Prior knowledge:
The chain has helices at about 1-20, 25-40, 45-65, 75-85, 120-130, 135-155, 160-170, 175-180, 190-205, 210-225, 230-250, 255-285, 290-300, 330-340, 340-360, 380-395, 410-430, 435-460, 465-480, 520-530; strands at about 105-110, 115, 485-490, 515-520, 535-540, 550. By secondary structure, the chain is mostly helical. The strands form two sheets. It has a four-stranded mixed β-sheet, covered by helices on one side. Strands 1-2 form a two-stranded antiparallel sheet.
Amino acid sequence: MTASFLFAIITIPLVVVVSILRPEFGDGLLRGAWRTIGALARRRRLTVASVALLSLLLHIVIGYFVQWPVPVVHDEFAYLLGADTFAAGRLTNPTHPMWEHFESYHIIHHPTYQSKYPPGQSLFLALGQAAFGHPIWGVWLSLALACGAVTWMLQAWVPPRWALVGGLVTVFNPFLAVDWGQGYWGGGVAMLGGACLFGALTRVVRDIRLSDGLVFGIGLVVLALSRPFEGLLASIPVALIVLAWMVGRFRSRAVRPVLRFVLPASAVLLVSACCLGLYHKRVTGSPFRMPYQTWSSQHAGGSALFPAAVSLASLPSQGTGQRLFVPEEAMQHNLNVIETRRQWVRNVGRKFVILWVFHLGVLAPLVLFAVPRIKHVGWELFATASVVFVTAAVAFESTIGNPHYAAPVTALFAYLLISGMRVGSACVRRWRVSHRIFVAVASIWMIAGAIGIVLLPTERMNSDLGRAASERARILAELRASAVDDLVIVRYGDRHVYLEEWVYNEADIDHAKVVWARDLGPEKNAALISVFSERTVWLLEPDTDGGPRLSPYPMEGSVSETADPENCKSEDPTAPDRR
């Protein structure tokens, strides 16, 4: 992010100086905005809808006028497979006879062909694909609903005007807008679930209504369908609060309010558990076995949460004839194992800080104003403990610790930020500090947000992974524009970077316009070609010196055209080749 930081270093100090010396440049605009916010905030439902609509419009502008979202990392392609499956009206897909050629990260091929991830994110992507013609609309809708839900949650925690400010700060957080709003791997869905859960919690313990129990149950279900592990962690403090509330009600013999909460929440959870069990049954063969567990047992050799450590020296190359690889979870776990204690502590601390900076941005120091209130205000203590608990757990996980892992508590980050802003504004009035500081802070936030929203999408695509993804998208678009169907056999070089994966396919492989296949050597390639005999066959070499090279597949290098596909199938699809 060199360009972003360079622009910020030049612009922000200039804005601060101008704001302090000539505050009239921004003071009038700031006061007018504050009055408008106060007028709108009095209409609570309109406020929530306005924040959601503003978020949707922002992401449409970024996508169409700054950078169209292209899937980059492995996870995004896996979620898109799930979306394509759901959009076609199926829960999963049958294993393809030539499945070995189609193996890829985060995708299982046995007992069925489907993404390993929980279905929540893919369901929203499928909604976008079915209703609007492209999965990215599902991402934008999920994040718009999430921003609206954060505003709704804050309306039960802070005064209406500050709730609207919290919603706006969430909408214009450049990291959320770009990383979650312009990518396919999620964040918005889990954020939506967390906001519903925490918003319903405060309403339940104050004045229970039937709808609060329903929203509470929906929040838990959305978390289970998107980030089940982190959602479980976020639900533990909530469960303690609810348990204490129920015990107090029973002691006072007020059973009816408890039933008004328990019955609708339990109904939502029961129906959702049955649906999720049916999904697991169709995908893995057991209602109690998640696809993630199947992937881990087949590829990592460990459990879903604790993949087995492997030696880095044992990682296979991606050359001709090679099948799949040890996935990145096992690699990352191994990296954590072989680090020194000091390196491990530094790595955990780095992930912890990144999670907080990601959610709070340049306004992060304002959270410090809320620290004195933690001992005196119960909800500040609850929010702080929940956020620290979840972010610490994510930092300690044997994964890279991406910010969307902590999405279930994003709404609580917004609450802590607003609490700090409220205390900070009160301190400014008490200390009789000039209002110029408000102009400076607001200007910094707007400039930094604009920088991030404009530059971060293009910088994402200018990374090594982004350039590889752009090349894949370009070649795919060219092949789709042709009049014939295509089969692309991908031959990796011996020093291929495993993160730059090319072999990802649609849910219905046989009827896809373009089929991507892994090069498994002349004999198996010939069997594959005989299955797709009506397609134009290409050889793609991503690792040539001049960049990815697409050329007609050399048929003369294959085994005879009479190769039998049945003889080239894997004898045991549950035991991937480790050559």
